[in-house]
Amino acid sequence: MGESDVTVQQSGNVIWQEKCIEISSEHCSIALHPERFSKTPKLLSELRNRGVDTVGQLPSTLEALLKLPAVGSVAISKFLVQLEDLLSLGDQPSGGALDRIAERPLVHQTGYIIWQGERLNIGEQAFLLELEPSTFTKTPKLTEKLEQRGIRTVGNLPASFEELQQYKSVGHKMVTKFWEQLKHELVSHRQHYEREQAAHRSEQALMRLTEEERVTKMLRRLEAKWADWTGPEAAEHSTDRAIQMLYYRWRNQTDGKIATLEETGAAFGISRERVRQIIVRKLKRLQADVSDLTHMLQVACGERRYFCYPFHPECNFAHSVIEQVLSLNQLIYIEELTYWTTDSRHQIDLTFKEIIAWLQRRYTGVVVTSSMLTDDCKEYGANHALPEQVVMLIARDTLRQAGTFGYILANSRKYDIVEMVLRAFPEGVEVHKHSTQLLTMANGLSGGQFESVRELLSVLQRDEFRATAYLWSRCTYIHHSYVQVDLVLLREIIEQVNDRFNKRSARSMQDFFAIESLRLQQAGIPNEQVLYGVIRRHCSDLIEHYSFPVIWFK
C-alpha cells in the first residue's frame, strides 16, 4: 500500500476481485471501529497503524492491502463482507447516522432492554452472558449479524431492540423471537446465579466456623439427607439388601455379638465374598453424598495427617455408614484416640509402634513428671509431623500413674523400678543404711511388688545391673548417669588389659584397676567395681572375649 494508491474518497468505489462497490461521500466518513470489523482484527490493526481510520482513506483497489504483513485474500474478503453489511443498514444512512447508532445506549449502560413497550431489567451479573448461536437457534441470522458487529454478550446489545430491525434481513418477527429466547435464557441465568450466590454464602458461612463446627454441620446435613433410610424402623424393614446387611452388622456389633462377613453371609444365605461385594458397592454409591465431608476432614487433617473429632458409630447407624464410606476414601477413624487420619491402617500401626518404641527407650527406668511428658511429646510431634495430643494419648496408654511420683512405663520390671529409685540419689546411696526408705520408694512406684529389702538388694547384686548402677564404695550405689567417664582414658586401659590378657599376666578387675589406679581415681572412677561397670557400659565391645569371658558383650 503506497502513497500513489487512489483512495475510496477519490474514486468513490471499492474494487476487489472484479467486484465493485460504490461508496458515497457520506459513507466515506464511516470510522473503522474494531467492533464493526471484528472478524478481521489483524487487518484493521495494520490499517490503523498506517493512519487509515475511515472508509474513505482505504485504497480503492483492495489488492493493495495484500502488501500488509499477515494479510491475505481471505481476510480482505471478510473485511469486504463486513463493509457491505454496514452499508446495508437502513435506507443507506449516512456515516453520521451509523455513528449515532453506535453511540446509542447499550444494555450495560442502562441496565434494561425495551421492546414493544415492554421493559426487561437486566442485572449486572447477566451483562457477560454470551449470545451463543447454539442457544438462540430460532434466530441464526440475527445472531450472525450481531457477531459481525462484535456484539457477543447481553451487555453490548442495544437497550432498544428497535435498532435491531435496521440490520439487513432482520424484521419484527425475528426480533420478537430473539426477545422471547433472551427472556428465557435470562431467567435460567438468574436462577443459576442465585444458586451460585447461595452456595457462595453458605461456603463463606462455613469458613467463619471452626473446623469442628464445619464437620458437625456437614454431618447434620448428611443425617438429614439419609434420614429416610437410616432410622431404626426404616433400616430394619428396608427393601435394599445392602442396607439390611449394613444394619444387621451394626446392630450385632452394638449388642456385642459376632458381626463378621461369614456370619452375615450365613444369616442372609449367601457367601462371605458376596456380602463383601454388595456392601462395598453400596458404600461406593454413597461416596458422592459424603464428598463434602471427605474434603472437609482431609483439609482438617492437613500436613499433620490427624484431626481430633470424637465420633460414635456404635451409637448411630448413620454414623456407622459414614465411617465406612470415609474409610473407602482413605480417612480412618481411630476410636481409642478419637482422631481421624489420612494415614493407611498399615501406617497407623507403624506410627503407634514407633511411638511406643520411643517411649520404651526414653522412659525405661525413669519416673516421668507431667511437664517432662508434655515437653517430650511436643518435641516428638514436631519432629515427626504429628499432633502433640496424638503422641500424648499413646503415651498415657503406655504409661501408668505411680502414686505421687509421676508416671512410669506400664510394663516396668523390678529391675527398672530399682533403677528409678537410684535416680533419686545424685550423690549415690548407702543401700543398707537407707534400706527402709528405698523399699518404701520401690513399693510406691511398683504398687507393692517388693516384699522385703532382700528382694530389692538382690536386684542390685545382679551382674547385668553393674552397668546401670556402680558400686561406688562399700554398700554405696550410684546411677551411671551421675558419673562422667573419660572414654579416652578408658580405651587406653582396655588396650593394656587386652595386651596383658594376651600375656596371661592379669587375673582380676583389681589387676586392671591397678594398672592406672591414680589416673582412674582422678577421672572419677574410685574402685575396680566402678571400673567394671563403666567397661560393661561403654567399652565391652573392645574386650577380647576369649581372654575375659566374664565381661558382658553388646
From TrEMBL:
It comes from the Bacteria. GO terms for molecular function: DNA-binding transcription factor activity. Pfam families: Sigma70_r4 (PF04545). Residues 241-287 form the RNA polymerase sigma-70 region domain. One of its GO terms (biological process) is DNA-templated transcription initiation. This is RNA polymerase sigma-70 region 4 domain-containing protein.
